[in-house]
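worker-03 picked up job from queue 'complexes'. Input manifest follows; three sequence lines, order preserved.
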Amino acid sequence: MSAAPETKKQVAEIGDKYKYGFVTDIEMERAPKGLNEDTVRYISAKKSEPDWMLEWRLGAFARWKEMREPNWARVHYQKIDYQNAYYYAAPKSTPKKQSLDEVDPKLLETYKKLGIPLHEQMALAGVAVDAVFDSVSVATTFKEKLNEAGVIFCPISEAIRDYPDLVKKYLGTVVPVTDNFFATLNSAVFSDGTFVYVPKGVRCPMELSTYFRINASETGQFERTLIVADEGSYVSYLEGCTAPKRDENQLHAAVVELVALADAEIKYSTVQNWYPGDEEGKGGIYNFVTKRGDCRGHRSKISWTQVETGSAITWKYPSCILRGDDTVGEFYSIAIANNYQQADTGTKMIHLGKNTRSRIISKGISAGKAQNTYRGLVSVHPKAASARNYTQCDSLLIGGKCGAHTVPYIESRNPTARIEHEATTSKIAEDQLFYCLQRGIPQDEAVSLIVNGFCREVLQQLPMEFAVEAQKLVGISLEGSVG
Amino acid sequence: MLEIKDLHAAVDGKEILKGLTLSIEPGQVHAIMGPNGSGKSTLSYVLAGRAGYEVTSGSILYNGRDLVAMPTEERAAQGVFLAMQYPVEIPGVTTLTFLKTALNAQRRARGEKELDAMSVLKLVRGKAATLKVTEEMLKRALNVGFSGGEKKRLEILQMALFEPKLAILDETDSGLDIDALKLVAEGVNAQRSPERAMLVITHYQRLLDYIVPDRIHVLARGRIVAEGGKELAHELEAKGYEHIVGKAA
Amino acid sequence: MSASATWLDERRAQARERFAAQGVPHRRIEDWKYSDLRPAVEGANDDAAAAWSIRMRPDGVEVFDLAQVDAPDWVRAHLGTLPQSVMASASLAQARSGFAVRVPRNLAAGTLDFEWKGAGSGRALIVLEEGATLTLCENTRTVGFANLGVEAIVGANAQLTHVRIASRATAAVQVEEYAVQVARDGLYRAHLFNGGAKLSRAEFQIVLAGTNARAALSGVSVLADGAHADVTTHITHAVGHTESTQLFKKVAGGASRAIYQGRITVEQGADKSDSRQTAKALLMGVRAEADLKPELEIFADDVKCAHGAAVGDLDADSLFYLRARGIPEAEARNLLVHAFLDEVVTGIADDEMRKFVRAMVEEALPGAMLP
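worker-03 finished. Artifact:
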């Protein structure tokens, strides 16, 4: 865990604390500014979508116009002007690439800075990367190996054209078009995203990973991810997010839908490091995301792990609908808010089937003048006999000017269900810090060490290479927060 | 190596050390004895640089450098080690991770090359066995759920690992039974060397039967009130602190 | 209440404005998510006055009937001055009956026992001066819609023990608001018994305003078919070195609903505050529902805050153990449910009060254990 020095060097090289805060200078193609039916049609046309998809989008847009932005979360921000943003942006030179060698070297350089050396990954890591640069998928690797296993892993725009039946069957079935303001907006204007289908009985031969990146200014990013694990299959999906630093706030409203059929398992891991704004709270991403998984078949399992260190505002509640009997839902979360960041995040575990089990481990860290809220629902419906939930919510405060809040909702309507919830609040003790310093560990590194210890149960859930990155991020996010 | 001159130090504005003078040469083991509240732990924290322990006047020279001006972690990197009376628990951080982080932080500060995980593990294993620090302990979170003896053994293991120039042992014997005490004392004795100075702080004479000091200082009300060879410990044991402290006052 | 005093008219007018601005709360209001008051009070008579009677009054305690004119200074100084929730604003604006109690400085007053009856609005003000102690025993036997607002000012080093008994009243809609302010070294202790109503809502807004101020709340809800009991608490640690504890247990049978919403706020700078909160519910059948929301809102870093909540059935191992020793299942269940609730009841220090609450539990439990 002696990550800090190395990371510090990287940070110093880029010249700021936020190491992903550079802009790639590539010519962009954009939809006209603003949002109306024509914007929706433009996006659909750019994607060469079939009519049914356009209709779906237009339906969503019509509903969205009637909806109101939610205000129940503990986050405060200036009203978003939805007409003052671009809803589609793509690098101009984007004919389909046959191999990485054809990709614009500037893009590849960007990925290198992001820490995703595609070539190296192909050779060593065995991770297939579907890299989304703004709205267009740039390069997809490892397709062949996945093809052999019958796994479909492609940009969702491609899936809409190539696998319309699968997409039609599942899209919008977990997060309905009218689910909430931001999800509906996404349904109307989503520009790209990822589609994964793992056939019956297949264990996906590698971790799937997508790095999303917002690059163009004034551009909202609206990805749509749909992952379907057919009966008895398994897939682990990794998602990492970064964005350049800009003074204005940018909106990110993604939707992720997971469907696990009987005996299937989906593991979804996120390391979210969107630009959080500067130390005065200027700029940063508004991260309003709807993520939901449906354990549709018996004995299926969906596990969410998230490390949220970025964004000016985070509004996200990756949830599980435990529909099938004997299904399992998990939510492991680390949310760090420093400076003026606001995070309102948590989960919903909806127990519908018999013997359904869920587990929630949430670690919230607040520093600076940040506000960090855990908001979670555990709901047991009358038919969910013998349902079980365990929830552990721990908050760590660094400094006396931040806030840590816990808002759990526990609703049970079955007498055989058992729900347990525990929450604690603590701070980094002076004696812990002194002990580390006395053994020669500098303050920032000590804070990183102690906080990583506090988060350990969650970090352990991440795949190895992600865990290392996450640990570094924890350190960077809290630099200078003590003393 | 260590030269303390007319040291005054305060905690929360209250003066605890009131003109303490003491010097230690490499290779020597000095003991500081004294009743409760005499300022023993304050001295150890002042030497290690704990926040809130303020030097109001006097000086501390460490190998010719002004120790007071050095940040806490730099003192550690330059060889000042404090084995604490109450080692601190850090949940979620495994002992091995902690050892590696600390070792590499010190090496980095001294401009030495950092060690990879395997090298650290080998190094730790080599020193752990004689102190009966098990692999299982190394995997547990630092000091969490450790017994009193385990915590103290781990402190001595760290001393062995970091190879300090000045080791301060603050009440290392407190709360230990005789077997645990012997084990710890053996660990300490094994590390006596011509380059290393040790300052053993204790309330009880018993420890000094096992770690035999070159010199003993008696601390009371923030000052050294008596000094002598190892025989002073027995005099204290026989006559009690009151006798000597009273005589000095 | 005294109709002619202008100071009172002003406070009522302000309260009426606050209430008008928010209206009767309904389930889309976050704090009322589990108790929909709007349909429950449709057609209720706003002008009705709830009847109160003091059944036992200790020596040395001053009582003032709020319907009288010429309120003494201590009533003027405090009535309607604590922060008012929306329904507390309504009771302040509308109440035409009520009373105020003053326990003078350093008086150890013993027990004051009173009762609310009938429908309508009522108000009470309890003032404990420095060093005073009082046990307040409150009994609620309302019908129709009753909205009762109680304010308590606990002075420095004073101790108020509040035992509040709401018997089962499945035709009634009871809303009670308790606003409590505790000064330094003061203690507010509350023990609640809820038999449940068609809709029952008891909300506590407690401010620990001085250093070493403490609040200790506990309660049981024993709910048979058709009962609804919502206990909502908000404890604010406004300064450092304050302490709060809460322990609430619920047994819900038939089609009943047990609700606990507890919010703890630790304000910026309120270091060394300590708060603990536990809520547990047992459901006796598939028609019963428990909703728990233990909430923490923390703005200071050097604090100890913990909460725990659990919903479930009786521990299967314990049940098996008892049956293996020859105790029939019904009896075994009965024993375990008693034990579950008794952890709360045994915490009542006053012997008389503890016996009284235990008797209430005994009476209500057979009904609540039916699925």
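worker-03 released lock.
The CA atoms of residues 251 and 286 of chain A lie 5 Å apart.
Residues 135-477 of chain A form one domain.
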